[in-house]
């Protein structure tokens, strides 16, 4: 780890931090942004699947970091700056004062990811989930309950979007994921690899606690409101979370937590 | 229902809508704000425990409301306005275009609320939860799984804060709740009324799925990060949600969903 003190917001070495806002919007490209102590803690641990390019820390925060930086690779540039310089770099107030840039590198596609899974596997399959909080919440639960992978269709948003990583509390860095293609193509791939498709739906056939865990389980989650479309439900074993009759409404991240907990418990 | 077309942002009849932003911040007073179609749907149903004072709708949204307004009381004033007038009233862009003012009225305190509960009861007890999303998420889950009441300590934020109602998808209007006093005082009250205290904690003694449901169960939830303090845990039956060893982190609203689902299922 090399501590490098910045004396100007215009230093070209930290150009990657200038486009944080755009990176939020496009949610793609070779780099992503990590922020905050809890996420940095995961990012600097062996659980993080992605290399870090650099860190950028507010001087005032360094003392409170404790052993956080001890896990940092020797050659990782760690830039430090006053809060004013930091805000000047990003163009808005970074109140957490702790940022890092990660590198996606070559990410495996869905097919490659599935090929590497163990014989007994649990994957979560968010389809058409465009809300960053929900994508982050699903990745947090996937990490908490040890899902082997997450497979997003391309209509879903990127788990490496800044807010999704933050809400995932680093889960996006831990759980292997792919995001590509249509829901149909993902389901074809899963079925061809021996996965049982389990679709969550308020009108599902089996209550979740009565579902025996298949050796290879793929949990399909749709967006709140529309839910999973009929042609997807028709291909899957539909499962419901029993609720009180007149309020049939669960957040999709909470749903993922209940289902992953239930299936992890049944293992 | 009386449709009243507004022609100016200065109309004194809709003064209650001018202070929406402050109402967000203070989160108290005799009125609260409901917004969006899904929440208005709950607010206009018999499940809503609070009277409505008025509605304020963007003209452009009225056609798409379908039968939503059919449940409105005959004497409820429903103001309509152009989006420009609407934004002029609230001082910021109301992109949902659907607002209402609710009245708290005389809310029962915790003691009165508990006195009215059935012999078999499930209550959720959020302690020191200051995040509006989490309070809203807990109220949504409490409604979904039919919790009989929610008891917040005063350190927690108000379930009738605008964002909390929105995130609760109207659950805040359905589930009877009180918010008062210290955690200790609430626990005294619950114990005196025959409730078993169940405290969620990563180091809890019993896995949640092994917990038999007590006739009267009070589920204690602490803030993410600090969790419940040791003197609260010491008074309760501690329960854990088993997770993968190295990522011991669940959102508190998700936690409430898993626990309420598990206890509702055990009934």
Explain what the structure shows.
2 copies of one chain form a homodimer. The first copy, chain A, has helices spanning 20-26, 37-43, 59-62, 83-90, 110-115, 132-144, 162-167, 171-174, 183-192, 230-233, 252-266; strands at residues 2-5, 31-35, 52-58, 77-81, 98-103, 121-126, 149-152, 177-179, 196-200, 206-207, 216-221, 237-240. Chain A has 267 residues and is an alpha/beta fold. Chain A has 2 domains: 2-103, Ribosomal protein L30/S12 (60s Ribosomal Protein L30, Chain: A); 110-266, 3-Layer(aba) Sandwich (Alpha/beta knot), CATH 3.40.1280. In chain A, the strands form 2 sheets. Chain A has a 7-stranded parallel beta sheet with strand order 8-7-6-11-9-12-10, with helices on both faces. In chain A, helix 3 (59-62) links the parallel strand 3 (52-58) and strand 4 (77-81). In chain A, helix 6 (132-144) packs parallel to helix 11. The relative contact order of chain A is 0.15. At the A-B interface, helix 6 and helix 11 of A face helix 6 and helix 11 of B.
CATH architecture descriptor name of the largest domain in chain A: 3-Layer(aba) Sandwich
Beta-strand segment tally of chain A = 12
Main sheet of chain A: which strands, in order across?
8-7-6-11-9-12-10
Q: Note the total helix count of chain A.
A: 11
Which spans of chain A of ≥5 residues are poorly predicted at pLDDT below 50?
none
**What is the percent of helical residues of chain A?**
25-40%
In terms of quaternary structure, the protein is: homodimer
